[in-house]
Amino acid sequence: MYRYDTYDQTLVDERVAQFKDQMDRYLAGRLGEEEFRPLRLQNGLYIQRHAPMLRVAIPYGMLSAVQLRALANISRRYDRSYGHFTTRQNLQLNWPKIEDVPAILGELAQVEMHAIQTSGNCIRNTTTDQFAGIAEDETVDPRPWCELIRQWSTLHPEFAYLPRKFKIAVTGANADRAAIQVHDIGIRLTRGDDGSVKATILAGGGLGRTPMVGDIVRENLDWQHLLTYLDAIVRVYNQWGRRDNKYKARIKILVKALGIEEFRTRVEKEWAHLKDGPETLTDSAVTNATGYFPEPARRDVSEDAINAYEALRVENRAFSRFVTNNVVGHKVPGYKAVTLSLKRRELAPGDVTADQMDAVADLAEQYGFGELRVTHEQNLVLSDVPVDELETLWKALDTLGMANPTVGTLADMICCPGGDFCSLANAKSIPIAQALQDRFEDLDFLYDLGPLDLNISGCMNACGHHHVGNIGILGVDKKGLEFYQVSLGGRSDDNATIGKILGPSFNAEDMPNVIDKVLQVYVEQRLEDEVFVDTYHRIGMKPFKERVYA
Amino acid sequence: MPEVTVEMTPTRELSDLRQGGVIRQDQLVIEDAWQIVRLDEEGNLPSFEQPALVPLTHWLESITAGTAREQLAPWLPSDTELTSELGEALSGTPLLAIDFPGFNDGRGYTIARLLRERYDYRGEIRAIGDVLVDQLYYMARCGFNAFHLRDDQYVEDAMYALSSFSVSYQTSVDQKTPLFARRG
Q1: What is the extent of the structural domain holding A393?
Q2: Which of A132, A216, A387, B148 could be joined to A309 by an S-S link, Cβ 3.0–4.6 Å?
């Protein structure tokens, strides 16, 4: 993975010193609350309901065992010995003291980490496919490109005070696992006939209050122009994005207001000036970035070992369940990628204790070349596990409580921290997730339902991506009471779709029954092998509505 | 993990800190007579003494009328849309200002960069309005070289903030080569 050189390290160290100075002035009363706000946000620091929250950047979800141990230690020393992995592949600490944050950032810098631009109206952490570099369906490894984008966007002097936050996602595979259609900018990397990298650029997607699917701005852009094209798009947004209403300030509103044709015209006009300018990428820049993501030193896995693994799948039902749900194919025969499920009854979705972080770091060193990935479904991935080590890894994960064989099922819910922690939330989300986990814990039932994304957000800001859940749940506030609105039919894959609202919202206690009725309709109406979301799009909302509101 | 000590920032004595006023990118406080003239609530230009920074539209009118050009300079609102005609007109003034109606209005950064990089403006670009020390570093990178600080801002803090970073990844007015091209 990427390693800092002296330039990166100097910049991050200077950032720590800058924030220390800003914090000193804030605590001394020389920097007002309002003026300090964007400064702390662009260093990941929120002031939350019960305590501050610090969001640590995990660039495009890549994390080393050394970094995870450092996070464990930081959570012990400065927090309550746990952290929360987010839908943007970052890690949040929920209970730091404000005045400790500069010291925490100093410790992060020692392991080549930071919290730069994890919040605020700026370009945020770039996200990508959790199976980048190892997926069977990948044509371009997105990680070097994500790193180039990370550097370009970090402390970009022109774009630190955009109208609103700005999120970029990149995929280089056939199947989109990075939800690029619901980001401010989505980038799909492909190869031209000559093998050179091309980028198709989407803009104007996003969730939040006005969910939208992005439009294509440019197809098959030559790789050299990636950064100048991004500069052009963000510059158009910076100039013309609305600043009078924060709910209409995202780029999607500008794209919609102008229409994609006019938006594209403005971008292309701006780009005509920037094209071939100094920010144009060079072979050596790409070669240098690519060099940080070499193929790990994998060993040969014998035919016998592969056969033994297949035999074990037949013999051992529990192992088989784990493999079927939590293990995915790898471009190298004999290797697999393993998802560590962070969806278990004892902890909120995405939460990991400090001791678990240490244990996972050990496993990453033992089974995964010391590297991990964070997924936008709030799980972790070991990307390079030989099949003859899967059984021992599975047992170790089972001991840790991270082997729940439910990845991709209803039980693998995406869930924001919600009203238990977040000051923006209208309603709690974690208790809803737990109630649903309790109700639908039978594995055979979950498997019978098949792949099903259930996403929960505690408010309009949609951190839990409820709009693109096959079943989405949104917490709403009505006269100080918490209610939940259900939507159906959303998806974040290649056919990204915003779900439609089922009808009037429900009490928290009713939610398990409501979801049960929705599932009943699916089970009764599905055709052979038809997944939930396809049944919904075939039969429409009416049968679900009639059953739930009967 | 070893104990970490975050390097302390240099102590700046509070006793004789100066607030507000105009500073230059080369970190010198300047005596400056230019007053900023804004439209009143009815949208009229109040009477003023020169030298003065006046709204862009008024300045353009005064050029057309041929009145007292040396003692007048324009300030550009943050929604100014630069065109080649406007860029041409502005090339004649040794000083112009860009207004920040709020410190979190980021349009001025783009305007300054375009003036420097696309319209080759060589004169002074001064930030006016809600100009706070913690935005100066980015402003300087985008081509501002003078800053009229908000009245409550400390000059010493501003000078410290201007040199926050010794490295940068991207190109801008102050750095014509991106880091990826400077790395060995």
Answers
A1: 303-400
A2: A387
